[in-house]
Design brief:
With 319 residues, the protein is α/β, with parallel strands linked by helices. The chain folds into 2 domains: 8-171 and 248-315, Rossmann fold; 176-242, no CATH class. 33% of the residues lie in helices and 17% in strands. It contains 11 helices and 11 strands. The chain has helices at 39-42, 83-93, 116-129, 142-153, 176-190, 195-202, 209-216, 235-245, 278-284, 299-302, 304-315; strands at residues 8-15, 18-25, 52-55, 69-72, 97-100, 136-140, 160-164, 219-220, 230-231, 262-267, 288-293. The strands form 2 sheets. A 9-stranded mixed sheet has the order 1-2-11-10-7-6-4-5-3, sandwiched between helices. Helix 2 packs parallel to helix 11 (304-315), helix 5 (176-190) crosses helix 6 and helix 5 (176-190) runs antiparallel to helix 8 (235-245). The protein is globular. The termini are far apart. InterPro entries: AB_hydrolase_1, AB_hydrolase_fold. This is Alpha/Beta hydrolase protein. GO terms for molecular function: carboxylic ester hydrolase activity.
């Protein structure tokens, strides 16, 4: 059983649109960086080459290989969802930002395996393939657990990480996602040609227009000579993965820790990072800070300014 105790002291610092909780670690026994090779992490993984957009700053502080930022979306998202914030961070920090499509999303290849060890392995290969040195990982939701898994599995590969509204715990995934897949399959079966038709089919499955538009952003016209729109994401693969996408591949924080800076940003109206998991975050990531942003689960789109401020405070060079 994991003991939810913490060897950290806490103080609060106010910032615009958010409350910042900074956890300052005391000396912790057994906190040497390490890797925990669970069954799913150690099994051979067939990786894919991730599609990406590179956002270059107007006044770069270094080349594109040195201290870049890699930003990762959540379930049903893609690199295009992070286009605006990527440009903003590149501008404000003078660092190159790689917005990637995780496997089975956007323009990245499809694979039948869709879990955090596989997604973390893809990102690790991406870092090596592009010769990136000391990158920062930023991930939202599914992307956050991917970032955390990679940090614990290969801590020497990255400089730090930012987890947006997710935690290193096993949790039941929101039942809404299963309902979304049902509606999206109905759309694929209907052979629609206009997004308005797709929206009408999806409406009984999700009342929020904003969320429907987000999901319908995955529609495209395959190069098959027809005008029919289909979903770019493999709905069958993602549907089968829902049962374990709430899981986290590392279970024992006494066996592995990430001893570099980590920032956790959570939405005050979201249920994904409840107070009771904070001590466990501190055990896996003893150098962590936490920021509460006035938002729900979609922190980056709901409160981009609070997110931007939190990231800048975390990443700007300390005097």
């Amino acid at each position: 059983m994991i003991s939810l105790t913490s060897s950290t002291s806490v103080f609060r610092q106010a910032c615009a649109g958010c409350t910042r909780r900074v956890r300052v670690p005391t000396a912790a026994a057994g906190s040497t960086p390490g890797r925990l090779f669970g069954a799913r992490m150690s099994a051979p993984i067939s990786t894919v080459s991730l599609a990406y957009d590179l956002h270059a700053p107007a006044k770069p502080l270094a080349d594109k290989e040195t201290s870049p930022i890699i930003i990762m979306h959540g379930l049903f998202g893609s690199k295009k969802n992070n286009r605006t914030i990527s440009k903003v961070l590149a501008r404000d920090l003078g660092r190159h930002v790689y917005a990637v499509d995780l496997r089975n999303h956007g323009e990245s290849p499809h694979e039948t395996r869709h879990d955090y060890p596989a997604m973390a392995a893809d990102v690790a290969d991406f870092i090596r393939q592009h010769g990136l040195k000391e990158p920062t990982l930023i991930g939202h939701s599914m992307g956050a657990k991917t970032a955390m898994a990679l940090a614990l599995h290969e801590p020497d590969l990255i400089a730090n990480l930012i987890s947006v509204d997710n935690a290193p715990v096993d949790a039941r995934i929101d039942s809404d996602f299963g309902r979304y897949i049902q509606g999206m399959k109905k759309i694929d079966e209907a052979g629609i040609t206009r997004q308005a038709e797709a929206d009408k089919i999806l409406e009984p499955y999700e009342k929020s227009l904003v969320i429907r538009q987000f999901l319908l952003g995955n529609l495209h016209r395959p190069a098959d000579g027809t005008n029919t729109q289909k979903f770019r994401v493999p709905l069958g693969t993602l549907g089968k993965s829902l049962d374990h996408l709430g899981d986290f591949p590392f279970k024992d924080p006494t066996a592995v820790r990430f001893l570099k800076p980590a920032l956790f940003i959570r939405g005050t109206k979201s249920k994904y990072v409840p107070d009771e998991v904070i001590p466990l975050i501190g055990q896996f990531f003893p150098m962590f800070e936490m920021v509460d942003a006035e938002a729900g689960h979609w922190v980056i789109s709901e409160n981009p300014e609070a997110f931007r401020q939190a990231v800048l405070r975390f990443l700007e060079p300390k005097e």
